[in-house]
């Protein structure tokens, strides 16, 4: 089973994403900020990370940098709100493989996952 780490400081966004992924037969784990995500990533063997950009403690861009430094093969999809194009570019330059825009479109999420996981 594909193991996914969903990272977002908004619990309702984590729940929404987790529900979609669970319904599509993914094993889902959650983190509420970038630091929590980095620590969980080091502890677990995740096939994919879906990460928000704007979060307290450690933002998504810094978390991507740390995760990719720890595991250059990490597969990370960034989530951004409209108007965060510059941050999305920074995240992709830091090693993220794709991005999705909030509010989520389930079909777009599944397309992105399929593309990133191959």
Overview of the structural elements:
The protein has 118 residues and is of the alpha/beta class. The protein has a single domain (3-117), classed as Response regulator (Rossmann fold), CATH 3.40.50. It has five helices and five strands, in the order βαβαβαβαβα. It has helices spanning 11-23, 34-43, 60-70, 85-94, 106-117; strands at 3-7, 27-31, 48-52, 76-81, 98-102. A five-stranded parallel beta sheet has the order 2-1-3-4-5, sandwiched between helices. Strand 1, helix 1 (11-23) and strand 2 form a beta-alpha-beta unit. Helix 2 (34-43) packs parallel to helix 3 and helix 3 packs parallel to helix 4. It is globular and about 30 Å long. The two termini are 15 Å apart.
What's the pLDDT, averaged over the residues? Answer: 91
For the record, the CATH class is Alpha Beta
What percent of residues adopt helix (DSSP H or I)? 40-55%
Q: Strand content of the residues, in percent?
A: 15-25%
Second-tier CATH architecture: 3-Layer(aba) Sandwich
Shape: globular
Number of strands: 5
The string of secondary-structure elements, in order, is EHEHEHEHEH
Q: Radius of gyration over alpha carbons? A: 12 Å
Distance between the termini: 15 Å
Number of domains: 1
Order of strands side by side in the largest beta sheet? 2-1-3-4-5
* Assembly context of the chains: single chain
| DSSP summary: helix tally | 5
Q: Could you describe the largest sheet, including whether it forms a barrel? A: 5 strands, parallel
- Let me know the CATH homologous superfamily: Response regulator
Name the structural class: alpha/beta
Kindly report the CATH topology.
Rossmann fold
């Amino acid at each position: 089973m594909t193991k996914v780490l969903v990272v977002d400081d908004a619990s309702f966004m984590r729940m929404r994403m987790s529900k979609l992924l669970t319904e599509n037969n993914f094993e889902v784990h959650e983190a509420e900020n970038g630091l929590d995500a980095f620590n969980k990533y080091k502890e677990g063997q995740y096939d994919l990370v879906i990460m928000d950009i704007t979060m307290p403690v450690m933002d998504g861009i810094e978390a991507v940098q740390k995760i990719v430094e720890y595991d250059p093969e990490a597969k990370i999809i960034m989530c951004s709100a409209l108007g965060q194009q510059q941050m999305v570019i920074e995240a992709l330059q830091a090693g993220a493989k794709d991005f999705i825009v909030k509010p989520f479109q389930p079909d777009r999420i599944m397309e992105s996952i399929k593309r990133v996981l191959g």
